[in-house]
Every structure is written in C-alpha cells, then in structure tokens.
Amino acid sequence: MSGIDAASLIAGMGARARAAAVLLAAMPGAEKARALASAAAAIRADAAAIEAANAEDMAAGAANGLSGAMLDRLRLDAGRIEAMAAGVEAVARLADPVGQVIERVERPNGLVLTRVRVPIGVIGIIYESRPNVTADAGALCFMSGNAAILRGGSEAIRSNRAIHAALARGLEAAGAPADAIQLVPIADRAAVGAMLTAEGAIDMIVPRGGKSLVARVQAEARVPVLAHLDGLNHTYIHAAADPEMARALALNAKMRRTGICGATETLLIDRGFADPAPVLKALADAGCELRGDAEVQAIEPRANPATAEDWDTEYLDSILSVKLVDGPAEAMAHIAAHGSHHTDAIVTGDAAVAERFLAGVDSAIVMWNASTQFADGGEFGLGAEIGISTGRLHARGPVALEGLTTYKWVVRGTGQARP
Amino acid sequence: MSGIDAASLIAGMGARARAAAVLLAAMPGAEKARALASAAAAIRADAAAIEAANAEDMAAGAANGLSGAMLDRLRLDAGRIEAMAAGVEAVARLADPVGQVIERVERPNGLVLTRVRVPIGVIGIIYESRPNVTADAGALCFMSGNAAILRGGSEAIRSNRAIHAALARGLEAAGAPADAIQLVPIADRAAVGAMLTAEGAIDMIVPRGGKSLVARVQAEARVPVLAHLDGLNHTYIHAAADPEMARALALNAKMRRTGICGATETLLIDRGFADPAPVLKALADAGCELRGDAEVQAIEPRANPATAEDWDTEYLDSILSVKLVDGPAEAMAHIAAHGSHHTDAIVTGDAAVAERFLAGVDSAIVMWNASTQFADGGEFGLGAEIGISTGRLHARGPVALEGLTTYKWVVRGTGQARP
C-alpha cells in the first residue's frame, strides 16, 4: 500500500474517531464503565480465538527469526488473556476525570469561571510486540473520553486484530460507538508516518516501545507526542544513610527487575558513607556486574573498570555503574550532567540534605529513602498508566487518565459586556 | 550571519539560560518579585534612552515603508514606557506558582507522594513589532522561574535592545542572574530557525504575532509550541434570549474592539428569536458591515450577501457574518464545522439549553450570557497573560504563570523497597 493510501486510510479512521469522540465526551462515567465491562467480557468470550490468532503470530515470528525475548513479549496464553480482561475491568473502576472542576473563580463583575476537565479528543497509540497494549491503551483512552487509533507491531497483527474485534463487539453490545477504539488494519509502516503527520485528525500520539520506535516518532511527528525516552536513573547513598537501608534499596532499585524504566543504572556513594562494602557485595552476590574506577574496585574486587560511556548508558540489564562522590553537590551535578530527568533517589537520614536533593534534582520523579523501581502509575495509585512521560509539558512522570485529558474554561454570566 | 552561526549563537544563549534557570528554579517568590521591581525601576530610569532607541526604529520603519498600523504598534512614548514598567511590577505582585503542591497522596505502603509545581526551564519567545513584549514576556517567564530567550522583530531591534539592557541591569542590581532574560542580538531570520530547532536547549516556544509568524513557527518547530492561531468566535442568540441582552452582547462582542482574538466573527440567530432586527440594526448603526443571505438581508437591508468563505473568515475588522439557524443543534453543528475552538458564546434565558451548549461546544472558552471579548487573561483574573492557547495540550485558553510551569513528583519514604 502506498503512502498516499495510508494517508487516506488514517484520514478516514480519524474522521470516524472524531465522530465517536464527540459522543464519548458527553458519555457519563458509569456508561463508559459499563461499556468497558462489556468489552472485558467479550475478550474472555473470545479467548480461544485470540489464542489461536496469537499462535499464528508466534509461528510467523519464529519463522522470521524473532528473538526469544521478542517472542515472549508477543506470546498470549489463557493467563495473559484473563489478565488483559481484568486490566480492562480495573480501568473501568477508575474515577472518571471528565467533568471534574479543576478551579472555580468568581470575578468582581459577577462572571463565574470554572475550569473543567474534558477529553483531549483522538489519541494515536503506536506500539510494538505486546498485544495486551491493544486492550490496555484502548481502555485508558476510552475511560478518559478519548477515541483511540491503535497501531501495533506487524509481528502481532493477528493477535491485535482478534483482541480489537472483541473490544469493538463488547463496546457495541453496550451501545457505545465501536469507532471509539480503532485498530489500523494494515501492517504497512507508511501507516505510522501517516499517523505522525495527521494534524487535526489525531490530537496526541503516545509511542509505546523501544528507544528506536520512540526516537522515530519524536523525529517525524507533527502531532504532539507524549513520550518516554530514557530512564537513566540514579540512587545516591548520602553519608548519613542508614547502612542496612542503603544496601536494601540499592539492591532493590537495581535488581528487582532490571529491564524496566524505573531501574537504577548508576549508584552514587558518598566517600563519607561508613559502609559501602556490604552494598556492593550484595549487588555482586546477586549477579550484578559492577563498573567503577580503582577506588570502587578496591571496595569490591569483582567490579570491572568503568569507561566514560558508562555514566551515560541505560543498561536495562544486570549492570550498574558505581561512582564515589564528595557530598550532595557533586552527586547532584553528576545527575544533572548524566541523568535523563526520569527518576532519581537519595538515601539519607538527614532531612535537610534530602529536601535539598528533592528540590534541586530536575527529574519527573525524585525520591527520598525509596526504591526507584516504584516509578510506576500503579504504584503511584493512578490505577494504570498509558506510559511515563519524560517530556516537560502537559504531563510528567506516570500518565494515567488525567494525563489523557485537557480542560475548557466555562464562563457563566448574566449579560456582562466588557467595558 | 549564516545559519550555522545562528545555531551556535542560540546554543550558547541556551546554555547560559539553562544555568540561570537552575538558579531561578530555587529562588523564593519574594526574591523574584524584588528583582522584577528592580527591573521596572531600571526601565523607568532608562526611559529617555528607550525613547531615543525607539525613535531610530520609527525612522527606519517609516523609511522602509511600514504601514501606519505597524508604526503605531512599534511606537513607544513616555506613557507606554511607564505602562511597561507598571506591567512588570504587576507581574511581580502575582502569586509565585513554583512550589505549589497540586496533589498529595499517601500510599498504603507509607510512601507519601506530592506533585509539586516547578518551572518548565527555558522558554523562547518569538514576537513582532510591539517592543513592550520584551518586558511583559520576560517578566512572566522570570516570575514563573523560567529563563527566557527573546527574539523580537527586526523593525524593533533598537527598542528591544534598550528595554532588555534596562531589564538585565535591574535584575543584576537585585542579585538575580542577568542571563535569566536574554535577547537575541541579531536581526537575522536564521535565529528564528535556530530557536525552533533548539531541542534540549529551549523547552517551549511561544510565538506572539500575526498568523503568518505563528504558522511558520508551528510548521518548522521541533521544540514544543504554545500557540494561538485563529479566533473565529461565534455568538449564538438562542430563541429564549432576552432581546435587550442579546442586542448589547452582540454589539459588544463584535464592536468593542474588532482587532482582538476574542472578537466575535459570526453571529448565529435562532429563527425562533423574537427580535433580531434591533440586534442587526444596532450593529449596522455602529458601522459594522453585515454579511448574510436573503433572509438576513430581509431583516437588515444594509446587510451584504455572504459567500461560503465568510463562515471560515476571521475578519479582525468591523465585519460580521450572520446566519439564521433552527435551534441549538444547528448552531452547535455550525460552530463545530467552522469555529476555531477559541471562544464561543450563547445568549439565552434557558439554563438547560445553556448547559447543553457549554458542555457540547469544544472550545477553549465557552460562555453563557457574556461577551466573547472577555477572553483575556486579565479578565479571567490571571493577572497577565503570555498568550491564549488554541492547542489542546498543556494549557488551553489564557495562559499566565501557571501555564509556564510543569510539575515533578516528590516521593518521601522510610526505606520502602518494591515487592
């Protein structure tokens, strides 16, 4: 299919999405929740068909030489399909953000202004491999009153079609517009380009995937993008840290799961900290490769030498760069120079130092005496997340329903003309 | 100066702005207010020099054939310079948004999360002709904790330099970083291009000027843009409108000032409205050209025929398109098809119809029984405005200090590791 065809396809989907978005914007929260419950039931009813479609994707993926990790992300079984349906139900239980009054002002001339949360409109989601995003992202957009145009990876297209068919049937059965959640039906990459330039048809794009996908989206998009790029996170053990807490948090922040964006990638340790050896020993014992200079290697002999590149590397693996610093100023300067403004933590018993760190480190999430692995919408109590934004505008950090809304100003008067 | 030189210039200014922004982000509100008061005093002290620089711009502008309207926008006199200084003082009196806690959540595991307002960082302002923007926009960015890179029109460069010199001296005298407000020193248009692509150095661009400037910025920018495009606003007189209120609001909404973005451009009148003739007569008597079909011309003989183009035209002049409609559904459909999502108003005594209009019209500002000319940050009680956003993300409608901030998540724990 040529680029022009992809553009017409996306324009047509955008027009249907806009019409659905108008209906969705006015739909009460309880009605949206009922429609999502119906969609979840349809996913359960279609479990066998979804699993069969997924088996075809898996076979094609294996034939095309997808890596084991890719195949695992692609795979759906009964448990994962049930988790997907339960996830849609969990989104349906979230509070409806639409219609919330953010602010109310009465002016001296009697005008009453309220700032009211409304949906953004049409959201484009571009994602890779994991087919559960079809249901998760579709549900989050729907519950926040937005129509969604979903474009999953070509390797998952049969799975995504099967999941989407269930979602659409479930929505329709509940009297909701099926066009509220649409799936781009073609695998052609030109469809991605058409979405990225669909100004006016798509109001915001959320890429969900690896760095190369996100980088392409950010480079080509004319539509605003809400994106997550790097999670080059630091945990800083201050001199006044409790040694046992420092050991436990460093271990958890790095090793609980190494592949998630909230994992710590660089450990900064004050030269004044009493007990660095047990911290590094616990990490090395857990199978973490440590990288540092001679001073670090003197503390933990299993550490390897670090190169300049290490301080700018998001490993997403069992590797940790370790650096000794002389106090908070040097730690904060290192984070400013090498961090990605995602999540950075300090471990200390000194409240004044902690507050200085929390105020001075310019990251979406700053933490005191907690594991950076808590950087997650569910852990933040948001119920779910469409992603974590490392941009500075609109929404920052974990993004859930509220980040998928905007607001309007509603002005009520009694005939006021402006003098 | 070549494009490459402009890029290096902007990169250098960006680096100095970033350093200043770090200091500004931590500066207490009272200290920022004192620095702005000092800047206002410096503007007053430099009034003669500013006026002399402006006289040179005026002479050059006249020699270059600038229109009378352009020359009026460019002109500074003692009154306008005093107003500029007073404007900076007014910004200094606004509440500091930085550090405000938007939300506080305590999680079952004991983690305490607060969402805290912080500055965006470095804001680029690209503007035309009116030199007072140098002071206004610089002060708004400063008070919200952001460093500003200002790029005014080449026709005002001497005036802008003189105003900027005063601002910078005033800030420095108060111990604030002069690099917090920088002015691009060259008139080369390549500087605009360099700003628009300065990802990482500039966090947000705000264009202030005519449609061609804003359109160029939106087309070329890789940096996020907070922009105002069209103000194709409607006033809809519902059947249940009070006739005298309808007359007064239509007249004010169109004719109070025709050149501002909140002016009404299209008047929709219900066929069921009792008394359209006095409304149209008042407008025609006030010198407004009316454009409509035969039905409209039958009501007001001075009306001219409307073409299809009229419904999509932002006149910014004493011209008004007028259309008769059959009730709220047709009015709202017309607004959806032809409006620019800026400001739309209904005049009616029927509260249920009004609420349906307020909920169903997808504009940044929706009004009931009020003049669309109230679409203004000052009138909304925001104290000042950097502009009115017609985009849907980050900020919508009048944007003042809060729209120049973002937030960070601050997580305080007692050693929590994630299970």
Automatic annotation (TrEMBL), chains A, B:
Pathway: Amino-acid biosynthesis; L-proline biosynthesis; L-glutamate 5-semialdehyde from L-glutamate: step 2/2. Catalyzes the NADPH-dependent reduction of L-glutamate 5-phosphate into L-glutamate 5-semialdehyde and phosphate. The product spontaneously undergoes cyclization to form 1-pyrroline-5-carboxylate. The keyword Nucleotide-binding does not apply. Its EC number is 1.2.1.41. The lineage of its organism: Bacteria, Pseudomonadati, Pseudomonadota, Alphaproteobacteria, Sphingomonadales. Keywords: Amino-acid biosynthesis, Cytoplasm, NADP, Oxidoreductase, Proline biosynthesis. Residues 15-286 form the Aldehyde dehydrogenase domain. Belongs to the gamma-glutamyl phosphate reductase family. It catalyses: L-glutamate 5-semialdehyde + phosphate + NADP(+) = L-glutamyl 5-phosphate + NADPH + H(+). Pfam families: Aldedh. One of its GO terms (molecular function) is glutamate-5-semialdehyde dehydrogenase activity. It comes from the Bacteria. This is Gamma-glutamyl phosphate reductase. The keyword Oxidoreductase applies. Its main location: cytoplasm. It is found in: Cytoplasm. Signal peptide: none annotated. InterPro entries: Ald_DH/histidinol_DH, Ald_DH_C, Ald_DH_N, Aldehyde_DH_dom, G-glutamylP_reductase_CS, Glu-5-SA_DH, GPR_dom. Transmembrane segments: none annotated.
